[in-house]
Write a structure and sequence with these properties.
- 2 copies of one chain form a homodimer.
- The first copy, chain A, is α+β, with helices and mostly antiparallel strands.
- Helix content of chain A is 41%, strand content 18%.
- Among the domains of chain A are: 60 residues, Arc Repressor Mutant, subunit A; 76 residues, Roll (SH3 type barrels).
- In chain A, the strands form 2 sheets. The first copy, chain A, has a 6-stranded antiparallel beta sheet. In chain A, strands 1-2 form a two-stranded antiparallel sheet.
- In chain A, strand 5 and strand 6 form a beta hairpin.
- The mean pLDDT of chain A is 96.
- The interface between A and B is medium-sized, with 18 and 19 residues.
DNA sequence: AATGATTTTTAGAGTACCCTAAATATTTAT
DNA sequence: ATAAATATTTAGGGTACTCTAAAAATCATT
């Protein structure tokens, strides 16, 4: 069985390669795990015998199918636990990341099978991120950023790009959550902020940054 | 924060001292943690600066109040998770120990507060062991072993002494669980086994070993 | 193609665990 | 009270991770 550290390396590599196409480089992994580049090189050399990834000096790493499988199962576990924490225990979406980060390393296949059933086989976590099924398949969704909507277009919030605490708390502050209805009132050219109508009732001005990080499912008019 | 290993040492010391009065000795700790006596000595020396226990060479260790507090909280977490696994996820009582052993190390006070509330502030775990409250207080109960009951005395099963898997599965086999009614029909002198009436319907012959490990709350006749 | 900036690796060392074998202390039995 | 048995510690070493500083390789710019 893989150690917690190993699991964290594999997950970091998965997330980096998923975002930037191509191999994950040493510095990126180090940044992701808040460790030094030297430690990463050391770890990659020691781990590379275990067939989770291909590593070539100075070229970075990419996962094998075994590594992808492992990363996917970790993401599955992380997101299922997040659903548990929010839906069952009553945590809010900005409080669950660190706890799920610990829970995802608990090793028991039966536990995940039963947890998944108990939660009703959820397809998305509290941030709208898809939960891979037991076979590792993600359910994708037609979604666009709020920023990309044209004037008068409507939709509902289905996810957030980065689920960092400050952004989630910013959204809490405006009472924006998954399922919140949005209609574009206008784009402000000056700073690319947007005026939107929230839940058919409240008019809000949202920054470009916020609008680029909110995922919307469009309502066909 | 204490490492998982440290936590396991403290818990082992607590359980040993609880059972055998007096200091926990090196070999007992080693046996409890499936490690070598030399490793235990090594660890005790390194850990003894942290004020969890008093250690004197060749004399064994006993916990300080800080150590007792830590052990108690770990037991609280372990038993709450066991309740979750059985009551909510549908595990049986013989399947939950190892999973709870991992879950108990997850570090979040808020998580335990919310989990406890979600479970309805249970006082006992699935094996009938008391769950200490947030202040570390155990709810004790009037209980005796089945073995100690006289002929014709009645009671209900409220716990098991050791919750090792084989014993729990043995009980499953006879459909004996917490809440099962027991009435003593006779003591067999030859091997100290007992003839009992289970749930007012089934007559069973139980071994001395089993009867000594079953806790009963007597019904006043 | 050479220089400078950046990235990555190597070298050397530290901590937190674990081990076996040997030495020493304590307990038990005579 | 001594010998034998048992319990504990010490000595020496191993693995999995971490680090900083220095060396080497790659990339970017002219």
């Amino acid at each position: 069985m893989a150690s917690e550290t190993e699991e964290n390396y594999i997950k970091a590599i998965f997330k980096i390669t998923e975002k930037n196409q191509g191999a994950a480089n040493t510095n990126a992994i180090a940044a992701h795990l808040s460790t030094s580049a030297a430690s990463v090189t050391d770890m990659l050399k020691r781990l590379s015998s275990k067939d989770y990834f291909h590593y070539e000096k100075y070229k970075g790493v990419y996962l094998t199918s075994k590594g992808i499988e492992m990363a996917t199962q970790l993401i599955r576990k992380h997101r299922l636990w997040e659903v548990f924490l929010v839906d069952k225990l009553g945590f809010s979406w900005d409080q669950v990341h660190d706890i799920a980060e610990q829970l995802e390393h608990v090793d028991s296949d039966e536990l995940i099978i039963k947890l998944d059933a108990y939660l009703g086989h959820p397809k998305y976590d509290p941030h709208g991120d898809p939960i891979p099924n037991a076979e590792g398949k993600f359910t994708l969704r037609n979604q666009v950023t709020l920023q990309s909507l044209e004037k008068n277009e409507k939709g509902t919030v289905v996810g957030v790009r980065e689920n960092d605490t400050p952004f989630l708390q910013y959204l809490n502050h405006f009472n924006i959550k998954l399922g919140t209805k949005m209609q574009v009132l206008s784009h402000i050219d000056y700073d690319h902020s947007m005026k939107v109508l929230v839940d058919d009732t409240v008019e809000l001005l949202l920054s470009h940054k916020a609008c680029s990080n909110l995922f919307i499912k469009k309502t066909t008019l």
